[in-house]
Amino acid sequence: MTQIPQAARTIAPVFQTVKEAEKWAVENKLADSVDYSKLPVGIANEINSALADFYTEYGVTLGKIGYRQNMDLYDNIMEVKRYKEGVIRGGELVGYRDMADLRINPVFFNNPNAKAILSRSYESGWAYSENIHDLITHEFGHIRTNTDDSRFLAGPGNIKTLSRYGQSSNSEAIAELFLKRRKFGDANLTPEEAQFLAQYTR
Hints:
Layout: E1 2-3, H1 18-27, E2 31-34, H2 41-58, E3 60-67, E4 78-89, E5 92-104, H3 106-109, H4 114-123, H5 132-143, H6 150-154, H7 170-184, H8 191-200
Parallel strand pairs: 2-3, 3-5
Antiparallel strand pairs: 1-3, 4-5
């Protein structure tokens, strides 16, 4: 996951094929490798559009965009895998860089009711995501998390004013707060939420 300051907004075109969407995503540094082959092209276009917004703002290039094996309708809709990648110079390991892969659930996005399911989830208070841009924003909350303390991240959510999903763990609390701030604005965060978000994101 490389980060490069950006000056101009990257705007994703609407493509007619997933191959075109994949090629554009790589050429415009959204990820080092992209596989949209299991997705409808409309979903691929929406993912590119959302990722382009974050590339413009943060200059983040993901490692891979693809899938986790054996996913079903009730698995995570999207998830991020964070890891360290070795940096080689002159044939020698000189350090490590933070990387992140985005893994997508193709079963969910090939369901004709996918958008209705997201809407119901949002309206019921389960989560703040009601569209693909929201889902990508939530995942970027994980990417922007500044702690690797797995015990803390897996623990029950400390913030009880969040969506129910945000209360399921501190990891999801951070991601849901990142989304909540961008979706509704700083004025809609409680002081406790704002402090928690500032403490655990970079």
